[in-house]
Amino acid sequence: MSQISAKDVKDLRDTTGVGMMDCKKALEETGGDMQKAIEYLRKKGAALAAKRAEKDAREGMVAIKLTDDCKNGVILELNCETDFVARGEVFTGFANALASLALRNGASSPEELLALTPGDDFGGEKVDDAMKTMTGKLGEKLELKRLVLCQAPDGVIESYVHPGSQLGTLVQLVTDKPEEARELAKDLAMQVAAASPIVVDRSAVPADYIDKEMEIYRQQALGQGKPEQFVEKIVVGRLEKYYQEVVLTEQSFIKDSTVKVSDVLADFRKKHQATVEVKGFIRYQLGE
Predict the structure, then answer these.
(1) Which pLDDT value is given to residue 53?
(2) Helices 228-246 and 207-223 meet at what angle, rounded to 10?
(3) Cβ atoms within 10 Å, residue 180
(4) Best label site of 5, 68, 97, 129, fewest CB within 10 Å?
């Protein structure tokens, strides 16, 4: 067996990110051949990934990347098995690298990202294989749960990631003053994170949601002994409060509870002599 030097072990570790003892073993098993040792470690990662395929991956992080002009953005959720790994630099660095890669290549789904072969970014591996290699490094199952690409050629996109990276949001505005609207978009991204709306305006609330809420309010009113002739008015009043909870433009603004988000949008239009509308938003909370 050829002599394995400390420098060879260090070089392999620098190349693969795998622990020193695993690198030493890989070199011993492959007679000190660096390329064969790299392939050995990749196969070991793939084998570990297969072995842990049935494990639950419920921890992880939300990663977001935007282009410099805030016209394109990617948000993704990458999962692992434990919070300890999720908070580590290797995992968080990998998640952010995946988001950057998706943004550069316009990947709009997990399947599109996993199929990419990015070149040197991931040691020449396809992303799906790089996931397995990372499993070998971390010793845990990894899963790319979800990913969305957002594009705003006629406006601006801004984001918010809550400390801990378990909650992140993207907000897209349509506006003729995109530079001026960036601060507004950032505020609304924080609004979406804090207040958890489900739609931009009430016309988008699914009919089955409304029917379900109305039936709940009706049964509550009847259960409280309210006269039937007043029940419908009570239901309508409570439905209005429901809209104020789930509709972004009807929510109280997080920075000033005396005004609604719709008022903030109106103030921006007046101040900047601009058009602005919320085209959409995305809210990822870990595990949801």
Answers:
(1) 63
(2) 130
(3) 16
(4) 68
pLDDT at residue number 47: 47
- 260-282 burial, b for 16+ CB within 10 Å, e for fewer? bbbebbeebeeebeeebebebbb
DSSP 82: -
How far is the CA of 73 from the CAs of 101, 119, 221, 255, in angstroms? 11, 22, 45, 25
Buried b (16+ CB within 10 A) or exposed e, 35-49: eebbebbbebbbebb
Of 155, 131, 154, 134, residue with least CA distance to 144: 131
CA dist 279 and 197 (Å) reads 14
Residue 222, pLDDT score: 77
Count CB-CB contacts under 10 A for residue 284.
24
- Mind listing the pLDDT tens digit for each residue in 177-191? 999 999 999 999 999
Long-range (24+ apart) CB contacts under 8 A made by 159-166 are 159/64, 159/66, 159/73, 159/75, 159/186, 159/189, 160/186, 160/189, 160/190, 160/192, 160/193, 161/62, 161/63, 161/64, 162/193, 165/61, 165/62, 165/63, 165/92, 166/61, 166/62, 166/285, 166/286
pLDDT at 16: 64
Contacts by 104-109, CB closer than 8 A, 24 or more apart: 106/72, 106/149, 107/74, 107/147, 107/149, 108/147, 108/148, 108/149, 109/147
Task: List, for the chain, all residue ranges whose pLDDT scores fall below the cut of 50.
Answer: 1, 46-47
Residue with the two structure tokens 């505020």: 187
